[in-house]
Design goal:
Layout (H helix, E strand, L loop, with lengths): L3 E6 L6 H10 L3 E2 L8 E6 L1 H11 L6 E5 L7 E4 L3 H9 L4 E5 L2 E5 L3 E5 L2 E6 L6 E7 L2 E8 L1 E5 L7 H4 L11 E7 L9 E4 L4 E8 L3 E5 L3 E5 L3 E5 L4 E5 L6 H11 L5 H13 L4 H8 L3 H13 L3 E5 L7 E5 L2
Length: 323
């Protein structure tokens, strides 16, 4: 029985046709449904891996992240190494790391899934939102803030960290709740057991509010969002010769220990989304454009990003990661 492979291609420089030729050369069968596959190939960058998590839903099909060059937080092989990686997978010469998956239910109906975090924000940046927070049905607080998020241990080093949350060690059986720019300084991040159900209800704002899964998947919120640990984990394939996701994350966090939170947030967004303009970054991060430009200046100074001029319109400037 040939190995069944599903391809998820994000903003990728990797030619999908070339990957399909590689699959055929190895006698592998491509399928369209990720839940019915033996392995999901997420092509491009960490964003593609997060897209695969969304598409898998409750399924726990393992994901192999394939980058155009080098590796990232979640991508363990480059496109040049894919052939050897598939052979290693068929021989069982690989490891699978399990990570907590979040499941959110919006207004009691729509389900969404995330590896890092599920956040609730107004659809317009720099706008306040009112909400009530409950944990396992018990009222915790009523707050006005830019938003609120629930993060996994892995996600604690992503958006949650830039919003003032703590770094949670992988393997800790907890979730982290982080209010984003609360008007009440007493509203601090909370650590709760990963068996808890976190509910954000009575959501109000001058603008429509959204539940946002891993910075990409958005669902309109009218009243409430309930977030809990999903029944199945996210399984990430790694080769034994590669550093673990934990090691990559640790190096990133230590290297950016003295970096302003806004710069960390913008850096993470560029890692997830690829090249973006300052205006696009402001829209995605919901930070004021002035804050985004300060963060970009800091990243340029540290030689972590570079400016790219649009060849068709020299007035358009984009920013991308270096290396």
């Amino acid at each position: 029985m040939p190995l069944k492979v599903c391809i998820v291609a994000g903003n990728s420089a990797i030619e999908v046709a070339e990957v399909r030729r590689l699959l055929a050369a190895h006698g592998l069968l491509e399928v369209g449904d990720p839940a019915s596959a033996d392995v999901v190939l997420a092509l491009g960058d960490d964003r593609a891996v997060l897209d695969a998590v969304r598409l898998l839903g409750e399924s726990e099909t393992p994901i192999l992240g394939v980058s155009a060059g080098g590796t990232g937080y979640l991508t363990s092989v480059s496109s040049d190494e894919l052939g050897a990686a598939l052979e290693a997978f068929e021989r069982g010469e690989h490891e699978q790391e399990e990570y907590t998956k979040l499941k959110g239910i919006v207004d009691g109906a729509t389900a969404l899934y995330a590896l890092n975090e599920i956040a609730v924000f107004p659809s317009r940046s720099a706008a306040l939102m009112g909400y009530e927070l409950l944990v396992d049905g018990d009222f915790v607080w009523s707050d006005r803030a830019d938003g609120v998020l629930v993060a996994t241990p892995l996600g604690s080093t992503a958006y949650a960290l830039s919003a003032g949350g703590a770094v949670v060690f992988e393997g800790a059986r907890v979730l982290e709740i982080v209010p984003v720019n609360s008007v009440d300084p007493s509203k601090r991040p909370l650590i709760v057991p990963d068996t808890a159900v976190v509910e954000v209800r009575s959501v109000t704002s001058r603008y429509p509010c959204e539940a946002v899964a891993d910075g990409g998947w958005r669902v309109r919120v009218r009243q409430s969002v309930a977030v809990a640990k999903a029944e199945t984990p996210v399984r990430i394939i790694k080769l034994r010769s590669k550093p673990s996701v934990r090691e990559v994350l640790r190096d990133k966090v230590i290297g950016a220990s003295d970096m302003p939170p806004s710069a960390k947030f913008v850096l993470k967004m560029l890692e997830l989304k690829g090249p973006m303009s300052a205006r696009e970054l402001a829209e995605e991060t919901r930070l004021p454009e002035r804050t985004v430009r300060y963060a970009l200046a800091e990243l340029l100074r540290r030689n972590l990003v570079r400016k790219v001029v649009n060849l068709r319109d020299a007035r358009q400037i984009y920013y991308e990661l270096i290396g």
